[in-house]
Amino acid sequence: MPGSAYALAVHLRSLGVRPRRPLLVHAALGGTGLRAEVLRDALRGVLGPHGTLVVPTFTPENSLTSTAHLARVEGLTEPEKALFRSRMPAFDPGRTPSQGMGAFAETVRTTAGAARSAHPQTSFAALGADAARLCAGHRRECHLGEESPLGKLCWEGGQVLLINVGFSACTAFHLAEYRIPKPPLRMYDCVVKVNLPEGDQGEEWTAFEDVALDDGDFAEIGAAFPASRMRRGRVAGVPATLFSLADAVDHALDWMTENRR
Q1: What count of other Cβ atoms lies within 10 Å of the Cβ of residue 136?
Q2: Model confidence pLDDT, tens digit, residues 19-78
Q3: For residues 164 and 195, what is the distance between their CA atoms, to the nearest angstrom?
Q4: What is the SS3 string spanning 120-187?
Q5: Distance (Å) of CA 95 to CA 59, 86, 108, 233
Q6: Is the distance from CB of 251 to CB of 226 less than 8 angstroms?
Q7: Cα–Cα distance measured from residue 205 to residue 210, given in angstroms and rounded to the nearest whole number
Q8: HSE-up (13 A, CA, CB side) for residue 226
Q9: Dihedral of alpha carbons 137, 138, 141, 145, sign
């Protein structure tokens, strides 16, 4: 069957997905007929027991400064904004759903045995041999830098697979923003779960400084990515692109150094 895990595995191997290597996947399955659970099982089968499947499980609405949050409160009065803020749920790695990442990311996040990093805005979820290690130690002041799962994936030879999405959604390019000399910084503000002395859990607002992330030119960066450094194909009739995460970061860093001012 075209949509079976076996058929998908054949397509994924033909594209270049290999066992043992960690793989970061961005997938938009709406309207494709692909089922998230079947794709998950096919990828895990190809990666094998020593491989690791990773997805972004971001929560951009958990911030007073994000575009997603500002869109939600647009038009509200100051008292209404204060009320909205007071009702915002705190980020909980074990329970908070990702926002805008799609059904596939949520399927991986909620699969038994999945690990998730603790960043309140740019967490990742993973399944497989190195899932817990890759997701551990995700510093709050490092959204998508060297001390994030993305940074670890880059240093460990990870690949990126885009399924039915373009380079505008390529999280790997963000790591290049951390490697620019003296990258611009900004403040972030979000709410998180905290453990109280009595053993209960409470909520706490936290502010921190980090690199000012900007994906506005990612489509341009992707358009300039040499075709020789990627493999394009189809997975069950859906366009897919596979490439080295390190290659993508190196290319993005060169492009940003030349074109960003």
Answers
A1: 12
A2: 989 999 999 999 999 999 999 999 999 999 999 999 999 999 888 888 888 888 999 999
A3: 40
A4: CCCCEEEEECCHHHHHCCCCCCCCCCCCCHHHHHHHCCCEEEEECCCHHHCCHHHHHHHHCCCCCEEE
A5: 12, 19, 13, 35
A6: yes
A7: 16
A8: 8
A9: positive
Residue identified by tokens 């980020």 is 91
Condensed to tens digits (0 to 9), the pLDDT of residues 105-150 reads 999 999 999 999 999 999 999 999 999 999 999 999 999 999 999 9
Contact between 42 and 5 under an 8 Å Cβ cutoff? The reply is yes
| CA distances for 162 relative to 196, 222, 223, angstroms | 41, 12, 14
What is the H or E stretch that residue 82 is in? helix 78-86
Which amino acid type is present at position 243?
F
Tell me how far the alpha carbon of residue 189 is from its chain's centroid: 19
Residue 255 neighbours by CB under 8 Å, 6+ apart: 220, 221, 224
Type of residue at 156: E
Coil vs helix vs strand at 112 = coil
Distances (CA, A) of 218 to 188, 210, 212: 22, 19, 14
Q: Strand 22-27 to strand 52-56: parallel, antiparallel, or no bridges (unpaired)?
A: parallel
